[in-house]
Amino acid sequence: MALTVSDYAVLGVTLLGFVLIGLYYQLTGGKQKTTQEYVLGDKNLSIIPVGFSLMVSFMCATSMFGLSAENYMRGTQFMVINASNILGTPIVAYLFLPVFYKLGYLSIYQYLEERFGKAVRITTSLAFSLQTVLRTALALYAAALAVEAITSVPQALSMAVVGAVCTFYSSVGGIKAVIVTDLFQSILMFGTIFAVIIVAAVEVGGVTEIWNIANHYGRIEFDNFQLDPTVRHSWWSLFIGGMFTYVSVYATNQVQIQRYLTMKNYQTAVKTLWFSWPITAFLSLSMCFSGLAIFAMYRHCDPIKTHRITTGDQLMSLFVLDTMGSIPGLTGLFLAGVCSSALCSVSAALNSLAAVTLEDYIAPFANGKMTDQKRVYCLKALVVFYGVITILLGFCAHFVGPLLQASMTIFGIIGGPILAVFTLGILVPYVNQKGSLIGLSVGLVLLFIIGLGGPKPPIENLPTYTNGCTSAIAYNDYHNFPSTDSPMVADQSDYLYIYKISYMYYIVMGFFTTAAVALMASLFFEPDVKDLQPILFSSLVSDRLIKANGVEHKRKAKTTRSVSFSNKIETFEM
What we know:
Elements: H1 5-27, H2 35-40, H3 47-58, H4 61-74, H5 81-103, H6 110-116, H7 118-151, H8 155-204, H9 207-216, H10 235-252, H11 254-260, H12 266-298, H13 315-323, H14 330-366, H15 372-394, H16 403-427, H17 433-452, H18 471-480, H19 497-500, H20 506-522, H21 539-549, E1 560-565, E2 568-573
Antiparallel strand pairs: 1-2
Helix pairs in contact: 1-8, 1-14, 3-8, 3-11, 3-12, 3-14, 4-12, 4-16, 5-10, 5-12, 6-7, 7-8, 7-13, 7-14, 7-15, 7-16, 7-17, 8-9, 8-12, 8-14, 8-15, 9-12, 10-11, 10-16, 14-15, 16-17, 16-20, 17-20
């Protein structure tokens, strides 16, 4: 498809706007000369932009195309995952966040060094870095896949351009530029999804008709309560697995914790988290519904069967190509939304990866000799470094399966063991360094074997049809390729049971394996509870720990914790 001038104008202005935002924050305020401003935005950012930033850091290009494809091909059961966030939000806000906000460490993994020692900190930090780089590359690839489907621009070129724009404004503008661009990018993502739904609704006769069509063809499903863990999506796998994923991402992930720390105090951070939850759910449900809207348009001529596209993750792009190409600027708006869905995820990751690398790997070897200005220069160089790495890894992302499942699998394999270590750290005083390290190592190894091993059964799809295709397309489908009007059911007996378990349980398995091994292993090593500071624990535990150690404790309305950035002391106020 050849883009019109208006399409190029919309896309060009959007990308240029993000670049200008980065330059604005580079040239105004403190000009990103201090670590405090560069990574924490001087702790004066407001609820709305940070709330949207929390949302889009999690909901990226893989979600936009993955969720629409999931609902198109397999129905609405996945929507249930949004219910899990109702339980996950208070757990994050009132169990984990008070501990990490009081400490105020630039790298959340510094907590693990104080609690369990340097080995646990480095292992967990490396695991986070691997998880984030892989998922970020996946988001960049998802956007490139969509751009290629519409414009025929090679994936390599689109990944390079989007990655370069993101790296530039993230490196020069710091966390302020990242969060402000996240706000605009989230608006574009909403606009893109709504455009798809509105166009489909106009074509089929309304939003209600989209739902009715999906229901008629068996796409509406919310009643799968099977306890069998090999069922890919059920209420149990989605609610339990979704809750663990949500807590892992929002409570023990550097990307999100760093955003909380840009707020002036703990109370504001909690309000931001509660603000972020409903808009995240709304965006997720909108993405899911867009899949039903696309199905309503292609219900009589499935473009996957007719080989117009090769994967369900390209459905939304094809829909835009078929329905919006004649409307000036609308295709450009969609492409801007596609690029935004990648930019917001990549920029968030680059900034956090740089902060973790500086604090966990570089600063300890400097022995406090790095000036604050040198730290900022180092952070900017690290953003560029990770930007290049992300682009290079994006070229390899085509080896993965469905984007949504691949992204959730990455979260599960690494997020479960990490969440377990942090949970034991704040709740179980007797768990010690050796026990936690053994548990973390066993959990990570086991989950990598389960998550990346195989073979695994193929994913079963709902029926699709080609009876409404043109004669040329129908001939191509029925005579050159095998017909698959009925879903292909795999013989489950050919696969090991462990590889048949739903990917939604990976994070749960990782959590409980790590926790169980750490708890048992810690019994064989001497605990050192007396030397542990109460501030390292949840208030559920710290009060009892203080009484047990005979430490005088006086409750205060406000608690402060001093944290050093190089030679400058900053105070974090609860």
